[in-house]
Design brief:
The complex is a heterodimer. Chain A is α/β, with parallel strands linked by helices. Chain A has 15 helices and 9 strands. Chain A folds into 2 domains: 141 residues, Rossmann fold; 143 residues, no CATH class. Chains A and B meet through helix 7, helix 10, helix 11 and helix 15 of A and helix 1 and helix 4 of B.
Amino acid sequence: MPVIEVGDWQVVTVWRSDKVVAWDKGGGGFLERLISALKGKLSDCQDLDRDQALQVAQGAALIVAHASDKDWKDLISRAADDAVCIRVASGGFRHEPRAPSREGSKLILYLMQPSGHLNEREWCNIVSSLWKAHVRSALAEGQSNPLNAYFRCDSVDNLAAVALLCQAYLAVYAESQPDGAWGPPCLTDALLRMRWREFMESKSESAKRITCQLQNGDLRNKLRNQVSNTRWWQGVFAEPSEVVEACHRECCNIGGSQSWQEVQRLLELIVRQSQLPPPDRSERSHPVAEAFLAIVKLLNRP
Amino acid sequence: MMRDDWPSRCHLLAHDWLKNSFLPNLSAFANIMSGKAQDPQAVRRLANQVLPQWETRFCEALQLVNSYQDEMSPLVWFKQRFQDKGEEPALSFLIELTHGLWLFRHLVPEQTRRARCKLLKANRAWKDLRDAFRNYGSLPANKLWPRVREPFLRFQKACNELMNVFEGFKRGEEWL
């Protein structure tokens, strides 16, 4: 299974008897990690010039390219009929999202993240998943699948809104503990993830204003009452009754169905109850903290 | 969340122009100056076509840096989403908190300050280079290079640093 490397240009490899072409016009910063991800499946490296590499791309099953518009078109046209062609950019395609599409029977994908941001494990995950026909067809048809987070830029408006509301809840219930940490314990992990302590110690103008509000006992009680009232949460959404479904859809779209349970638990409380439970000092978890951590994990991946 | 404007403008400036057009032009000239390549039209092209681009782009870049906080803060999104929700204390608190955490987590004030410094540094180098070409542009290459080399390399380095700073700006809704 040879790999043909062209300086900082492109790598061509045969893997599982299918040809993989990785092409970097320079500055993509992904070749090394992609090659590492394919380690064990590669056996040989050699240099090619651009034209030779274009030739080798003939019949490729997978193309990963940081290429000019012209080279990209050339590469697609040379790929095998049922190939997957991934275009990457050093800044990613999130600013001009393009959904997965078909060109004939070829699947065309645009990586949303900057090409240099993906690690070896992520490349490995992408390449091995793309070899599964059901993943390719789910991508093409916009169905839920684990690679949506890389190649789709679906709206996560509702999940983001829930997470921001969680932050407000966590902040107004946060209390400095005798050991210097922030708690109560059921909120500690979420507060840590919020970087609450560092923020409060940052002496920024915002931190000062927030501190000032939270030190006012009357105002703090008023805030606690408001953020515990589920109507406050519902007020954020145009259709509160549809929020569970909307968040579930977003969660699946970005490939995070494993984290859904924690989010769902909070959403059911928001929709069905009038009050959220206050943080219980004897408990190790709280639905707001759990949902916040789950959403952050989801939105910050891959 | 429709806030495409700043990221798109940033992409056009930092990626399409600076990284993929302007810097390669500077590199090509550096190669000529160091004798790795030859092009009799290089000086004329650099002085008349490449360097003049900076003047307009500099203003554009400065405007971009100065508008980052206003256009990319989650406050923009909040204003759209919560415009009819009144002035309740928890909402004001939420807005203040989210904006404050965004500034803090992404080092927004530091990032914009750094970008502004790099821009001004590049602009100073550009002015020196422009003056060097104005004064010595008609000299033959062997006499011109020693006079433009230092400001040119300084300008090229500053432009590279600027590109790195622009790449560090968060362009998505990474508020959490």
